[in-house]
Amino acid sequence: MTEPVITHLRHVDLAVPDLARQQEFFTGVWGLTNEHSDTGISFLAAEGSPEQYVVRLREAADKRIDLIAFGAATPADVDTLAHRLLVAGVRLVHEPTALQTPGGGYGFRFFDNEGRTVEISANVAVRRHRKIEVGESVPVRLSHVVVNSADPEGTRAFYERHLGFRLSDTLMHPRMGEMMYFLRINAWHHSLAIARGPHPSLHHASFELRGLDEYLRGTGRLLRAGVEKIWGPGRHLAGNNTFSYFLDPHGNTVEYTTELELVDEDAWHPHLYDFSQPEVSDQWGTANAMNEFVAQKSFNDLDKGLFVAPPV
User: Fold this and answer.
1) One domain for residues 287 and 148
2) Do the beta carbons of residue 117 and residue 306 sit within 8 Å?
3) Which of 2, 32, 114, 253 is the most buried (most CB within 10 A)?
């Protein structure tokens, strides 16, 4: 397995047909801040995060994941990882170069094994951010991204072998086998998870709230606003984090969460959890049951951006 040079999750970038509607959802209801916008593109920040933006929206005919972006500590680490990938036969979108997105920096892009575009960058300017106050139910940061995969074993192996991700836990089902892998790149239980699905797509993007009270306030605000809830509120066993899953205007699942577990690297041993046991999906027993409806919504549409780099 590759020695990790990736430090953290930066942002997830989505292409959507109706940019105005998607932007209104994320800023007017979800609680992100429109920091940098141009014609056909918006960069949305989380008030508590030093990242220039945690979501980028781009107007396009096809709905897709444009890219998933991770940080590295130094430009030298960026160069090291790009060289490793090139030698291993991974297809680069472009080699390391100065980035033209907000905050600048130095980075490169490549396709993962299923064709998602991934960006690795360093030296991105820190955004002026602030401490989220008690009772303020807006995202502190982007917590994690979960992708659907038609080849979850191969996708897990790709991220472990080439990018240094480590397995935290696995979800399994007695009839269906292993269904989800939780992967970490730092002390957080997972920054990326890979779910077994019918096709590559976004499963969900998750946003950390300040604490339990703020998480519940945010969940309630979305319910009062009439946003369709898929699953929750509850608390998972893997990661020990809370969950409330909602649909954005384009059918992507987005999550409010808090209290994601921090892993002791020296003592941690991955668990194999059977999610046919109700307490695995929801320790509290407050969420609606995980069923075909929840699974179907989480499958999302086939990503139309596989092995096609976004134009920006």
Assistant:
1) yes
2) no
3) 32
Give the rounded percent of residues in the chain with a pLDDT score beyond 90.
94
In the predicted model, what is the mean pLDDT of residues 140-154? 98
Query: Is residue 174 located within the same domain as residue 272?
Result: yes
Strand pairing category for 55-59 and 6-16:
parallel
Question: Which of 205, 149, 144, 145 has the alpha carbon at shortest distance from 178?
Answer: 149
Chain segment 228-277, per-residue pLDDT in tens: 999 999 999 999 999 999 999 999 999 999 999 999 999 999 999 999 99
pTM of the model: 0.97
- Domain count for the chain, please give it: 2
Q: What is the CATH number for 175?
A: 3.10.180.10
- Domain of residue 158 covers 141-299
Are both 177 and 221 inside the same structural domain? yes
| 54 is a domain residue | yes
- As a whole number of angstroms, the distance between CA 85 and CA 102 comes to 26
Domain closes at, from 95, 122, 149: 122
Question: Do both 208 and 105 map to the same domain?
Answer: no
Sheet holding 201-208, edge to edge: 229-235, 242-247, 253-257, 201-208, 141-149, 192-196, 177-184, 166-173, 271-274
Return the DSSP state at 308: -
Q: What is the pLDDT confidence band of residue 2, given thresholds at 50, 70 and 90?
A: low
Contact 89, 166 (CB under 8 A): no
The stretch 281-286 carries a mean pLDDT of 97
In the block, tokens 């130094």 appear at 74
The answer to whether residue 100 is domain-embedded is yes
Note whether 279 and 237 are within 8 A (CB). Answer: yes
